[in-house]
Amino acid sequence: MRSITTLELQYAHRFYGFKGEAQYLHGHTGTLTIEVNDSVNMGVNMVFPCNEIKKTAWEVMKNFDHALVLREDDPLLPAILDVYEKQGIKDGAPTNQMKGPAFKTELATAYPECRLVVTKETMTVEGMIKIVYDLLKDKLNIAKLTFTSGDNAASEEFETNNHIDRCPLCGIALDENGVCPKCGYKK
Ligand SMILES: [Zn+2]
Ligand SMILES: [Zn+2]
């Protein structure tokens, strides 16, 4: 069966080199839907608690929220970093607190200090699904990802079979010692 959760991201981007309006910098509220597949954990009668899926995903995905997403060859990138540098916010600001851990994958690199994500490919809704799967595939048994942004939407199904031991009392993933980090249950 599947447990399904949704999270929202507000971001700015553009399609560098694209011939439509999207070549200009603009913003969206994007909605990411994550479907996780596994057996039903009979202790709690759920696949996985949806708030826990959200928490796991948000840890990395918050780097995309209130962020600028630019392709690595976009000339706006050095221009914006130059402005941030001169303004003294390139390496962080006291009010910039919603930061996830910096990440670097084949497809994207996050710079949480200046709320920037640099991508290898143009960040279309399809591109976002590739990036998100790469970031979360080892943490969750992702069966399907859907990303919508404005009039655009894309989805892809996956077969992800991580063996995740779940707590029979509260449903969350047990740690490497078989202990529930939330309620202390031991396998
Ligand atoms: Zn757009
Ligand atoms: Zn527990």
From TrEMBL:
Pathway: Purine metabolism; 7-cyano-7-deazaguanine biosynthesis
Enzyme Commission number(s) from the entry: 4.1.2.50
Gene Ontology molecular function: any one: 6-carboxytetrahydropterin synthase activity
Enzyme class name: lyase
Pfam families, A to Z: PTPS
Catalysed reactions, as listed in the record: 7,8-dihydroneopterin 3'-triphosphate + H2O = 6-carboxy-5,6,7,8-tetrahydropterin + triphosphate + acetaldehyde + 2 H(+)
Protein family membership: Belongs to the PTPS family. QueD subfamily.
This protein's name: 6-carboxy-5,6,7,8-tetrahydropterin synthase
Organism: Blautia liquoris
